[in-house]
């Protein structure tokens, strides 16, 4: 949690992080003024123990805590923010011979630590209660019942959380640096995964190649890596790693990221194998080209819902061009055919959480929420784009029998070439996903840059 990596953003972008922390202090002070608070207390979280066991589940610190303190595995710690004062960090680093405790940050190794007053906790302890009215943020259910009572604090007030969530939507220069580094590390993993696939590796071999090249343990990745060969590529969140190489190698889909100081990358690539049919190769090329066109349209003010619907229109045109569906693009979208080929949204906000907060909250003051359009319930981002937003763009096309079979049994099925569906089924599907930051006049692609090789 406190390792210093080569080209660590905390070191190479120290000035940007100082600016980031100054802006956070101002934002929290404004929130305290608006909500009549004298202090905000953040709890980093604590690991959850498996039932009837002495082992903890994989743990990551609470995201609002990580927004301040870039130590993603720091548990049982507290951050107290007060107007006009340095944040007070109660950092839990026990004397322990069973596990390696966190390293206390120093200005040389962690320049951000200069912005904090740090108290070393050797055992889990409540912070000294600040005077006045307090809000306590974190996973309160994991704390002892008397904690909230002892602090005499309001736990997770909804209006305050909405406001702080909104403050994470547009990223600072430092946050973008972390996202860039996370994207670069993930790209190394993707290229290694592709090589292992071409060499004949099984899903587990490909996963291990990814982890090795991206320099991560399985517990470090921001989400469970999806490594699907052949028909497994049609399981959107496929969660296993087969031990044996399949007899035929039609396709590989890898959806995997990396994490740098809690900031996640989320990249997907699909590749054709030696046994892939020409129509699958054309589908991969078509989805890739479609994705690039959508990215070219990104800019502040663009309605992400409209972009999602444009993805469906272009996917329908691709299906028509390949001879898979004979209807016009407009008719396919209207009749819900493209939703059966791509049931997920175009993408989402990205940051300290892979699916970052506030994707459906355009106005944090009123709390009004813009829901996805009818027929597209899985769209996670319904806002207009703003400069500084970090987002993903991930169109896909899959052969998912449980979604396509209902089409076979009604009038829509007459427009579908079922022989091509059967030919494509062993390939599973295609997803192409990049990570981007919205700029003043477009978007900066963190994934398709020369440094990543993707």
UniProtKB/TrEMBL annotation:
Catalysed reaction, written as an equation: Xaa-L-Pro dipeptide + H2O = an L-alpha-amino acid + L-proline
Domain named Xaa-Pro dipeptidase N-terminal: residues: 18-164
Enzyme class: hydrolase
Any one Gene Ontology molecular-function term assigned to this protein's record: phosphoric triester hydrolase activity
The family this protein is said to belong to: Belongs to the peptidase M24B family. Bacterial-type prolidase subfamily.
Role of this protein: Splits dipeptides with a prolyl residue in the C-terminal position.
Protein name in the entry: Xaa-Pro dipeptidase
Origin species: Cobetia crustatorum
Gene designation: pepQ
